[in-house]
Design a protein that fits this description.
This protein is mostly helical and 432 residues long. The chain has one domain.
Length: 432
Amino acid sequence: MLALVLTLVPVLMYNAKYPTISPIDEFHHIDYAERLSDGDLIGLGDRFGLEMMREFSCRRLDASEIAFEVPACDAPDSALTPDRYPENGYNVAYIHPPTYYANAAVGGSIAELFGKSFVAGARLANVAWLGAFIVAIFVAARWLGCKPIVALMASVPCVVNPVSLHALATVNPDAAGLACGAAALVGYLGWRRGGSLWWLALVVAPIAVKSTHGLVSGAIVCLIAAEAWLDRPKPFAPRAAATTFRPVFAAGFGLVGVAAAVLLLQKSLASAPATVIDQLSRFHAERFPIDQMLANVIVVPPFYGYLPRHVNERSVLIVITLMTLMVMLGMVLGLANRRDPADQVLRNVGVAALGMSVLAGPALIVLNYSINEIFVAIPSRYLISLVPMLVLVGAAAFARHLLTRWGWIALTALVWTVMVLEMAQESTLGVT
């Protein structure tokens, strides 16, 4: 309960004081959720609906440096045409499965029943993802043999940082990243405890929410494969080997199957060629961006991200930097500690998460170029699903000794206090 309160308070404060539209493609996500609430799935070639365009005109975009004009809030419906909005009115959120948007659509529809705006309800619906994350991180910590204090120590840094806070306070499938990461870890640990392959459904589920959330799925599938390889029968026996590698095949085929289903859904809903999307032309790469591969390696926990200008203060940057360094130090200590054999599973989880965080940037660059011949610098928020695993390893390492445990708690309390006070001082966070 304490973990939920400590994470819910800053999320609700951020939500209440951020009326503007986030520049991280929130208008695309709002349109997707609104259309889904009417039973309409978004596909390639679909353009913004009237409801989203009205919200955009009234709320405005939190990016005063972007020079384009949209119709006024009180403009007649006839003036709200897609070509007067960003991306020439084409919705690029079609690449995401409808899973996240279904939850947002329910929240938005309920809000409208009470006379509130659809966007306000869709944003508040992220509380469901936050609650799921809190439950999953406590279950994962317990099954890893950690005390509840470790789950509490991990849950607050996971949420109270620029990347997670902004996602959870806006309409964006990144808001589900923490829940997906923690749920996938629970699926892996549940399989290890009971042996049932059904637990692996939680491992592959993140990719059905957002493709980049599949990074945690990939990390855990690699972990399962490594364990199967180390446990392989010696000498080789086909029947025993089939049993040993069965979880690898189940998780691997499940991951590929869900990804294929998402791609087939996108293809079936497409009503125009990909050339209509301005983003694809804007980011088109004439040749493979080999020189950008190493530049997009992300080796630190993805805490840094977009913050509205009014809270993008030096004090916030300092405490977030300190928290990032603390988590990195905890990861090093956790991976280096080999004195306790009982921590082997926790170390394996840390190695898998850290390895995937290093490979994620280059892998996504290869994927983008292979599918669309584009190059896009990989933002750290794409790795949000790996955060629960990374932070849990660090928190467990710091919790071993009284002094380091209280050091972690003190710094976490400082980060929480600074973030809350900065938001409390402002009447509104967005800049239009």
